[in-house]
Amino acid sequence: MKFGGTSVGKPQRMFEVADLIARDDDTKIVVLSAVSGTTNALVAIGHALASGNKEAARQKIAVLEDQYQVFADALLKETAYRQKAETTLKEHFEFLNIILKISYNEALNKDILAQGELLSTKLFSVYLEEKGIDHCLIPALDFMSIDINDEPQVEVIRKKLEMVLAENTGKKIYITQGYICRNAKGEVDNLKRGGSDYSASLIAAAANASVCEIWTDISGMHNNDPRIVDQTMPIEQLSFDEAAELAYFGAKILHPASIWPAQQYKIPVKLLNTMEPSAKGTLIAEKAIAKGVKAIAAKDGITAINIKSSRMLLAYGFLRKVFEVFEKFRTPIDMITTSEVAVSLTIDNDLALAEIEKELAAFSTVSIDSNQTIISIVGNEVAENAATLEKVFASLGSVNVRMVSYGGSAHNISLLVPGEEKKRVLQLLNKGLFGLG
Ligand code: ADP
Ligand code: ASP
Ligand code: MG
Questions:
Q1: What residue's CA is closest to ligand 2, atom 6?
Q2: Is 255 helix (H, G, I), strand (E, B) or coil?
Q3: Is the C-beta atom of 6 inside 6 A of ligand 1?
Q4: pLDDT of the residue at 312
Q5: 345 pairs with which residues across the strands?
Q6: According to the 3-state scheme, what is the secondary structure of 45-110?
């Protein structure tokens, strides 16, 4: 059971989470995110330190500490437990204040970012103790790991998790941190923003769980981004393939990589609402129940690169040379289309863009458009039904579509549009494909 930031964002929410995890006798591992807003605050502290602004960092730490004092006071009643929480807060905020004195580096920043999940799980554990709910807090840093390529390996995690569980047998409820892990150097690291979903899926796979429940602030995956369009509806069931495409192409409810561990180890995933526990939510399992469009998602901050061969035609070997440049700079390509003389592709990580451009320019003419958005239309076999494509383009009217990807996956049709068109495109498709406003 994984509970996201909003689900543990207030003392009242933690009370509800405690009820949810204690309502049956099943053995479970409970993965918690940081209290909502905390990771953003820690990111801001890291930024202040990176830019040498220690005073700003110190102030931000003080504000956060005050918030946690209020939180702990409302969470706990008895003096003994309040003192326990006090000791925890002191430990973590002293650590943050010591960091102010050390010279900033990336590894230190990862330590800062880890404080959110450490705090939420420790406070929740004290609350469970006060309530008399038997449980065991297991540190994610003892078993969650990523390899030299920053990739988690389920079998490695499984071995470590088995050891941790063997040291703490006889419990029904294990509490652990989402998001944080150790890297190949043994340092504290993380699974990137929103990574607690990924932790949950990896732990479910490593523990051979019967189900992976992702508890959040909405009743399941909706057919469109509820932050952008007015009318959306929850989807009862999705296949792993459909959910993976939606997560990868921007549906914020799931971390982009969170589906593969569950899919590979055939563990059903349920998306459930902490604020409305009886709502059906979404079941993600192996089989799709129906064909056709299920949902639309959008991925922002995309860079489109057009690479025109210096020779008149795309000679053989040209694409290999292009791909080698992206491989060299460890930059994955999302969408790709080709013509007789050029190839257009997109990336979402432009850290190495300048170097990539320079190397491509040695054998081609390069042009770059930043701030693009990929809109993905996802559903079982959507790309095998000509009527879907017709409907998609009929819905779009005069929108200027920069690229189209069709046929690469049977479950996805992707369009690239300028970032400023995203809202309009999501609204038009909501109307054209679902008849919703
Ligand atoms: P948590 O903190 O529980 O991980 P997130 O904020 O990461 O929660 O994800 C849940 C949010 O994702 C929802 O509140 C909703 O605004 C947003 N969201 C974006 N696209 C979708 C979608 N297609 N279906 C459901 N929620 C979505
Ligand atoms: N706390 C982390 C974040 O805000 C991880 C998560 O919530 O999933 O990104
Ligand atoms: Mg999330």
A1: 194
A2: coil
A3: yes
A4: 66
A5: 305, 336
A6: HHHHHHCCCHHHHHHHHHHHHHHHHHHHHHHCCCHHHHHHHHHHHHHHHHHHHHHCCCCCCHHHHH
**Residue 373 confidence (pLDDT):** 98
Nearest ligand to the C-alpha of residue 220? 1
Q: What is the Cα gyration radius of the chain?
A: 23
Tell me the mean pLDDT in the region 217-232: 97
| Ligand of minimum distance to the alpha carbon of 252 | 1
Q: Whose CA is nearest to atom 5 of ligand 2?
A: 194
Which sequence spans correspond to the domains of the chain? 2-210, 294-434
- In short, whether 116's Cβ falls inside 6 Å of ligand 2 is yes
For the CA atoms of 401, 407, 409, 411, the dihedral, rounded to the nearest 10 degrees, stands at: 80
294-434 and 2-210 share a CATH fold? no
CA distances from 349 to 140, 175, 329, 413 (A): 28, 33, 10, 21
3-state secondary structure 366-404: EEEEEEEEEEEEECCCHHHCHHHHHHHHHHHCCCCCCEE
pLDDT tens string 237-277: 999 999 999 999 999 999 999 999 999 999 999 999 999 99
What is each CA distance from 151 to 180, 184, 190, 241, in whole angstroms? 13, 10, 11, 20
Indicate whether residue 298 lines ligand 1 (CB < 6 A). Answer: no
E-only strand ranges, 138-294: 173-177, 180-182, 188-190, 212-216, 237-239, 269-273, 282-285
Mean pLDDT for 198-202 is 98
**Token pair for residue 1?**
């059971």
Judge if the beta carbon of residue 192 lies within 6 A of ligand 2. no
The rounded Å distance from CA 164 to ligand 3 centre is 26
* CA-based nearest residue to 96, from 107, 85, 108: 108
Which residue in the block uniquely carries the two structure tokens 């210096």? Answer: 310
Considering the domain delimited by 2-210, tell me its CATH architecture.
Answer: 3-Layer(aba) Sandwich (3.40)
pLDDT value of position 288 = 82
Instruction: Report the CATH superfamily, name and number, of domain 294-434.
Output: VC0802-like (3.30.2130.10)
DSSP code of residue 433: H
What's the predicted TM-score (pTM) here?
Answer: 0.95
95 vs 115: CA distance, rounded Å: 9
